[in-house]
Specification:
Helix content: 40-55%
Strand order of the largest sheet: 1-4
Strand content: 5-15%
Number of helices: 9
Distance between the termini: 16 Å
Shape: globular
Structural class: mainly alpha
Mean pLDDT: 90
Low-confidence stretches: none
């Protein structure tokens, strides 16, 4: 998306390096998600919310994969409807939903680690052989450390909010993506 190109000074993957390295370290000691059914991505456990910058980066990834199209819009609309997320922003509530990029049991996510939301990257197994989404945690300390390394993100999020006339600083993945797609006119409907 054009708005992404204007603020490309921050490399998406570079800002996720600390999170990706921690994931790899946990993988190396057997604390891996590779055999897990992925409850953290489903309505049973997921209420992930993202910033405008994270949404733009997901959209940029989808664009490079030729997945930013009317099919994606339909998928996001269906996801919002299924999990009743349409009033999330107006009511200011955080709801559970299955991520539209969840591929199903043990298949993971269709978004690359270099574009995945920070919260998703920081949520990992806390022991070996996790298969049912139990004994997992969100490493808040590493998220805070990452945020301190990139204080300019606040300015970029404010720029995106102003540029697109958004009325939120965080929203669920499908709501954030769909609103930015529509406001930035990224896909011809």
């Amino acid at each position: 998306p054009d708005i992404y190109q204007k603020k490309q000074g921050l490399n998406s993957r570079q800002r996720r390096t600390i999170l990706i390295e921690e994931m790899s370290n946990l993988d190396s000691i057997g604390h891996t998600c590779s055999s897990c059914i992925g409850n953290c991505c489903t309505f049973t456990s997921n209420s992930m919310r993202i910033t405008p910058l994270e949404a733009i980066e997901i959209l940029h990834f989808l664009e490079t994969e030729n997945r930013l199209n009317s099919s994606l819009i339909k998928k996001l609309e269906n996801n919002i409807s299924e999990f009743r997320l349409e009033n999330e922003l107006a009511l200011g509530i955080k709801k559970n939903y299955t991520c539209p990029f969840y591929l199903g049991s043990c298949q993971g996510c269709s978004i690359s680690r270099g574009s995945k939301p920070y919260g998703c990257l920081a949520f990992n197994a806390n022991s070996p052989n996790v298969t049912k989404g139990t004994n997992c945690f969100s490493n808040q300390l590493i998220l805070e450390n990452r945020e301190q390394l990139f204080p300019e993100e606040k300015e970029i999020n404010l720029f995106i909010i102003k540029k697109l006339d958004l009325h939120w600083d965080k929203a669920s993945i499908p709501v954030a993506l769909l609103e930015i797609i529509k406001k930035a006119n990224l896909v011809r409907l």
